[in-house]
Amino acid sequence: MKKIFILTGEPSGDKLASKVISQLKNSRPDIEYLSVGGEHLKSLGIKSLYDLKEVTYLGFTKVLLNIFQIKSKINQTVKEILKFKPDILFSVDSPDFTLRVAKEVKKNDPSIKTVHFVAPQVWVWREHRVKKLKSFLDHILLLFPFEKKYFDKEGIKTTFTGHPLLEEQGKGKIDVSQVIKDNKKIFSIYPGSRLTEIKTLIPILLKFVKMMNEKYKDIFFVFHSTVEHVQLIQSLLLKEGFKNCGAIGDEKIKSHILKSSIFAVAKSGTISLEICNAKIPSLIIYKMGIINFLIVKMLVKVKYANIINIAAKEEIIPELLQSDCNPSNIFKNVEKLLNDNTALQSQISKTQNIIKNFRTENSSKIANSVLIHYLGN
């Protein structure tokens, strides 16, 4: 029986991996799996070596403070992968963790094929990493077409798959009125999937909601979270006494809630693509520790934080970062957009022009074909 080890480092990677593997499990039932994964891979019946949160660290300072623990976790993971002896190590995103593991695995057992999904963002910073990747990666699956040129010049095999989260979703209907009462308009909020992000952004977002409630009486705010953190957010909402707020962790319900929303405020990240795909206008926020921010500012070579804006080379979706990420600014920007239908429609139109270049007919199927190729007969 063929074997694949799936290596992720955070919830977004777990979600992407599950999109690919769910199709592969249907077409090739003869494959055995083991992973470092989260709730999405678990829902496919794939065991994880340990809880994903054990390797989900945010920012440079957090990594430095936990450097020995991270090194220990890398060594543990490499040992278990070598013991499992997979035909393929399928690593997904989180390059500071997954690629370190892949490098050690390849060094110890060159017969294991290494396929990495979600290329390191060398077009944002640290382009010199490309040369090093060639020594231990057999193939990279690309989300975006403009990435290919960075790897072609080093002779690294790549395949543009498109983004699995932009694939057509199931047409099934969910009656959101069972979740949202009194026929209120739905406003989606994404405070991040990591605990550190949630702790940073939730206080800001709760103050923003209070400001919105002073002016708008017909809106219900839905905080989208992971199964792991949904109870925490729900408890914070109850503590504040909000009557028009809720928190959800179920992926199917989240998708339908988003599609029924009038607007979304989201932490910068992959979720922005899903929001754009649902044709919902949005605002992007992000805040990190000052030391992390200064390091990032010195290293990055792009003007924007959001992939849509980076690809467009203009701020299609407003970004409020660092000191600009505060309740008052979020409220002012949201209110301005909600009262300008032309601006809302313009944002939606422009984002659709961008994400059409990120789509393929079936990104998961393309990724599967690469994995099957490396599995051999």
Describe the structure.
It is a single chain. Helix 5 links the parallel strand 3 and strand 4. With 377 residues, the chain is α/β, with parallel strands linked by helices. Helix 8 crosses helix 14. The longest helix is centred in the middle third of the chain and has 21 residues. The protein starts with a strand and ends with a helix. The protein has a six-stranded parallel sheet, sandwiched between helices. The protein has two domains: 182 residues, Rossmann fold (3-Layer(aba) Sandwich), CATH 3.40.50.2000; 183 residues, Glycogen Phosphorylase B (Rossmann fold, 3-Layer(aba) Sandwich), CATH 3.40.50. It has 16 helices and twelve strands.
List the helices and strands in order: EHEHHHEHEHEHEEHEHEHEHEHHEHHH
The share of residues in helices is 40-55%
CATH architecture of the largest domain: 3-Layer(aba) Sandwich
Task: Using the coordinates shown, work out and report the CATH topology of the largest domain.
Answer: Rossmann fold
Task: List strands and helices in order, with pairings.
Elements: E1 2-8, H1 11-27, E2 31-36, H2 39-42, H3 59-65, H4 67-84, E3 88-92, H5 95-108, E4 113-117, H6 129-133, E5 139-142, H7 148-152, E6 158-160, E7 185-190, H8 195-215, E8 219-224, H9 230-240, E9 245-248, H10 251-259, E10 261-267, H11 271-277, E11 282-286, H12 290-299, H13 307-312, E12 319-321, H14 327-338, H15 341-355, H16 363-375
Parallel strand pairs: 1-2, 1-3, 3-4, 4-5, 5-6, 7-8, 7-10, 8-9, 10-11, 11-12
